[in-house]
Amino acid sequence: MSQAGSGKVVRIRGRSRAGVKAAAASSAKAPIVARDAIAMAFEAIGGVAAFAEWIKASEDNRKTFYTNLYPKIVALQPAEEPEAPATIHEIRRTIVHP
Fold first, then answer.
1. What would the pLDDT profile of 36-69 be if each residue is shown by its tens digit?
2. Shared domain check, 69 and 59
3. pTM (2 decimals)?
4. Whole domain around residue 60: which residue ranges?
5. DSSP assignment string, 13-38
């Protein structure tokens, strides 16, 4: 991965996220991480409003969104925390003779 104009190549293969952040913090100009570059490009082309317009533009786009993109986005979202289980205060054993 390289940054335009810097002439410096930063290799991040085999590093943890903490290692990448430390490497980025140590250089004068931090390299742009792929996720950040994609987010910047998304905003540059119109962000959420443009994305919604693209989805609405055709049935093929709508199909692509619901079959390919939406399931991946939902899978990335953290699950809601389950409610705490009911607290058991007492257990009784009752023997009933017929």
1. 999 999 999 999 999 999 999 999 999 999 999 9
2. yes
3. 0.46
4. 46-76
5. TT--HHHHHHHHHHSSSPPPPHHHHH
